[in-house]
Amino acid sequence: MAAEETVIDGPDILKEWVGKGRVFSKSFDQELYHEVQQFVFREARLQDIHDYDAWEDLWTDDAIYWVPANGTDTDPERDMSLIYDNRSRISLRIRQLKTGRRHSQTPPSQLARVISNFELIKSDNNDIKVMCNAQIFETNLRGDTMWASRTEYSLRHINGELKMAYKKVVLINNNKPIFTLSFLV
Amino acid sequence: MEQYAHSKWKKLIQPGLVHGSLYYDEEIFKEEVEKIWFRTWVYVGHVSEVPNVNDFVTKTIGPMPVLMVRDRNNEIQLLLNRCPHRGNAVCVQEKGNRARFTCPYHSWTFSNTGDLINYAFPDGYQGTDKSKLGLAKVARIAIYRGFVFGCMTEEGPTLEEHLGGAKRAIDQLCDNSPTGEIEISAGFLRHRTRANWKFILENECDGYHPGFVHSSIFSVADSAIGSLYGSDAVAVTRSFGNGHTEVDPRPEFRRRDEPLSWFGTSADRLPDYTRQMNEAYGEERARQIMIDGAPHVMIFPNLFIAEIQIFVIQPVSANESIQHSTAIQFKGAPDINRRLRQQTMGSVGPAGFLLADDTEMYERNQRGLEIRNPEYLYLKRGEHRERRDEDGFLIGHSTDDLPSREIWRHYLSIMEAQ
Lengths: 185, 418
Description:
Chain B: Pfam families: Rieske (PF00355), Ring_hydroxyl_A (PF00848). Chain A is an alpha+beta fold. Chain A has helices at about 15-20, 30-50, 50-55, 85-100; strands at about 5, 25, 60-70, 80-85, 110-120, 130-140, 145-160, 160-170. Chain A has a six-stranded mixed beta sheet with strand order 4-3-8-7-6-5. Helix content of chain B is about 30%, strand content about 25%.
């Protein structure tokens, strides 16, 4: 391992929570870091204002949108996840929201999210991998809800623009009963 | 007093009319915990959730946690997670594998059979009978085709008497597995719901709502579910008695006469599964099973088998519940299992295409009851067309309120009892 890298470690009892084994890059590419942040902030804004088409446009054709349940490093091909969408299911999710009859989003949740703690992590291919934290305030007919997540992206330059190939949202309370989550997280 | 209690319930629950307070009154909720959750058979878990000796998983009976354990003797046990000494939890892990549980407070240690093995500094206890200080157990445990039920009282009907005609639905489910066994192995989604548990219970066999609550997803996905719940549908609702109800779409699937149509697919798309079914049951019987499909049955009070997934309803308070949901897996049938998981993940849980909207309805219903007029909910749809099937069970149209009426009839009989 190069000196400019560091591996996430932590107590075994929290293994499924800290995403153990991921390698953070200590080298700092200011321009890339800025570009990645701007992309994630834009994605957050599109989600907050329910701009469904613009959000869907951010995805690559091989996209995976994954919100695991019951831990961080579960196996989505074996274990239940809250969301485990490929590109066509992302599209179905958007089409349902756009009918105007997705009752849990009618009226839509009012949202503001704060994204922070960006760190670039080592990638096994040409994708750019980044981790960050998100806090989302939601208010809807039921009341106010706070959500918090560790989020992991794989981003890719396509025709000079960044696109999302992979987004994994690990809700910090995903091993507890949680309220309906029908806005785009 | 008895006369008063009798008339109280009769007033709240009338034919086709139920009083709003049954969904929000905390005193009624406490009485339900005692009379339903702690007195009658309740679904706890499935044997496949503890496949190995010493496996355990935390489950619930009503609002109370229960440890479901496969003990050192390979027996399924339902232990209460409360140290007999001072009430501490002997286990705070949700699931795992261990032969003994040690209370962290004073180090009392219990075998996973529930027996007290030892306590710290034993010379402080003189003449104490350790056999009386084991973990308490759910009074009765019974297993039907892998489904584990518990009952907190020694007396009362057996599990098989309680299930009655609903056994057919469980058999129908297991028959869809080429090994005759299902597995619950994918972990649960837990959906926190600010609504009374009975709104969830009643919705499970309500065939009136899908065309409206789920029109958003039906209109954008190729779903054949909608046609089961139209006004010209041939599917029926059925009451098995004891509060168990089902929507039975078999008349519709038999009309279609296509294996796996119930699952929105066809035999040639699942060749391995189809071959396994033919080998297990013979072609004729396998074809009938694959036409009829899996059941849609609500076993009172908390186990909903929704064709390809199960839901376990957990009451928390009068105004709050948790829906636990997961995909059913057919043991030894990997090609259908992936589809069962994928379809379940799309449909259920907090982000599901279906359940997010069902849950929105439960929560709006609950808030609606803050408006106190009219006092009663109206459940009379299809009263005029109830009839008996060849087995003597009450049936109605798939969009009728018959399941709700029958749930309330059973509820009344339990709550009236002293």
